[in-house]
Amino acid sequence: MKQIYLAGGCFWGVEKYIAMIPGVVKTEAGYANGRTANPSYEDVCRRDTGHAETVKVDYDPVRLELSRLLDLFYEAIDPVSVNRQGHDAGTQYRTGVYYTDEGDRPVILASIASLGTRYDKPIAVEVLPLKNYCTAEEYHQKYLDKNPGGYCHIGPGTFERLRRALEQ
């Protein structure tokens, strides 16, 4: 198993979207790369902790290459938006790819470079080693499965495009 941490705005939709991808074994909503230890949702939203809402992704590299996982992730976010995804704004909604294996860095950077060829604006997805991470509160885990009508900046069309892409 391998791990990667993906920040793409509100973690509710990102977690559901990433969990749909074959080869992803487990997802978990949490907070990454901030300045404090073990923040609460309230801390992250109101106390300038510097954390990003992030999804911890455990995946099987035999079934799913990191480059493919990242390509699918980029389809669910606006990679040129700074500190905003959908109606959510603030540094906690920034986009990022955080790695724990230095060997993943070249793959991530190559994927960002490739992504950049499709946009006229600079890519805003930060690529950094994971400094810290803590699991979000239980009510955030699998939120959209528990609350099917819940808010999500990832629209139904994006989920449908993923379903179709996986069928090919």
Task: Please tell me about this protein's structure.
- The structure is a single chain.
- The protein is of the alpha+beta class.
- The chain has a single domain, classed as Peptide methionine sulphoxide reductase MsrA (Peptide Methionine Sulfoxide Reductase, Chain A, 2-Layer Sandwich).
- Helices cover about 30% and strands about 25% of the residues.
- The protein contains six helices and eight strands.
- The strands form two sheets. The chain has a six-stranded mixed sheet with strand order 7-6-1-3-2-8, with helices on one face. Strands 4-5 form a two-stranded antiparallel ribbon.
- The chain is globular, with a radius of gyration of 15 Å.
- The two termini are about 25 Å apart.
What's a concise summary of this model?
The protein is an alpha+beta fold and 168 residues long. It has a single domain, classed as Peptide Methionine Sulfoxide Reductase, Chain A (2-Layer Sandwich). Helix content is 32%, strand content 24%.
